[in-house]
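Reproducibility note. Readers wishing to regenerate the assembly model reported in the main text can use the exact inputs given here. Chain order matters: entities are listed in the order in which they were concatenated for prediction.
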Amino acid sequence: MTTPSADTLANDPEYRSAIVDLLALLAMGELLAFERLAGDAALAPQIEDSVALARLAAAEFRHFEDLTRRIEELGADPTQAMLEFRRPLDEFHAHTAPSDWLEGMVKAYVGEGIASDFYREIASLLDEQTRALVLRVCDDFEHQEFIVDRVRLAIQEDPQIAGRLALWGRRLVGEALAQSQRFAAEHDSMSVLIVGGVDRPGADLAEIGRMLARLTENHARRMAALGLAA
Amino acid sequence: MTTPSADTLANDPEYRSAIVDLLALLAMGELLAFERLAGDAALAPQIEDSVALARLAAAEFRHFEDLTRRIEELGADPTQAMLEFRRPLDEFHAHTAPSDWLEGMVKAYVGEGIASDFYREIASLLDEQTRALVLRVCDDFEHQEFIVDRVRLAIQEDPQIAGRLALWGRRLVGEALAQSQRFAAEHDSMSVLIVGGVDRPGADLAEIGRMLARLTENHARRMAALGLAA
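Running the prediction on these inputs yields the following structure tokens for the assembly.
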């Protein structure tokens, strides 16, 4: 499979506009992730955990700044571009408000994990410069390993919570899928990128199938890492 | 007035320990400011304001990292050093929880302003290296000018809120003074720094009086900038 070239970004307005949308979606996601993680930091029982979560949040905000700078370079207004993504992302967060700190941790780990995987899959279909930016933005996931420790320790101390947290993990995925589908039905920029265009290669159905399989497998792997049934 | 030298930091354990306390107080303050500003960002009605507040919060976290790194260089454990400052700062924030976004903005502007002024005053009494760090950490205050615009605009649209916000500003100062006095009565590291030691210069009573006068004047100036009676 070949990917779009830098020329495509310069000469194909449909592709360019889809890239602006993708970066704006990512940027809005990073801004909201910043706010959630900072909120979790404020709730953390231990100063060390507050600090670790605040550090993650600050990293998300650096990504946000990188993304909005790139949107400006592409000649678009970041705030305008982000506006349409605020409602679906806000709704996702409103429907998945954690009831305690542990649920917040599972949400951060599982949610950021799926989102990063999804963007990495899309990245493989993009021009080189956009791909490098998207991969860099998704790169900080390993810093979340301390969350695995906290959740496993909590389950060790009280094995009963594993069932509740496993259910919670399934609800997060269900809600993410519901919001994505609703959004995709109203907007076609993601399908422009995934399926391709007249002069632009994209993924065929078999590739999309394998992509979804990888997303599902990685999610199950992360739930297992937390000690939870997927 | 002369100030302590780098030798004082190396050879005077009382001074060194007071410096660790000061940096830990600053660090804990920055971490909590990060959490509050990020919380305000999540409540901001406009994306632009969310972004501006998130940027401020991220800057506070960078200061936090600088401060904890320095505490480690001085041979102390930052988490341990910060622990005793968590309760008074948490209590200050618990007693001054904003009831809406505007109160949050006034609190950020007035609270950060007084805190920065206080630390700048203390900085003038410190060894050169510590002074440079403290001044750098207090340096970002000018980025808060957008808060002035928001508050003034809100008062222009509804002049009645000026009275409520002015009262709120007075309550913030009163609560800050109450917590500081309670804390100072239990801990003497700040007075070690301000008053000095046997081989170490400090501020005399006249200087302390002028310091308090400057803090009060600056506070009144900030309230006036917001369009509020001090």
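We highlight two features of this model. The two ends of chain B are 32 Å apart (CA to CA). Chain B touches chain A through 24 residues (CB under 8 Å).
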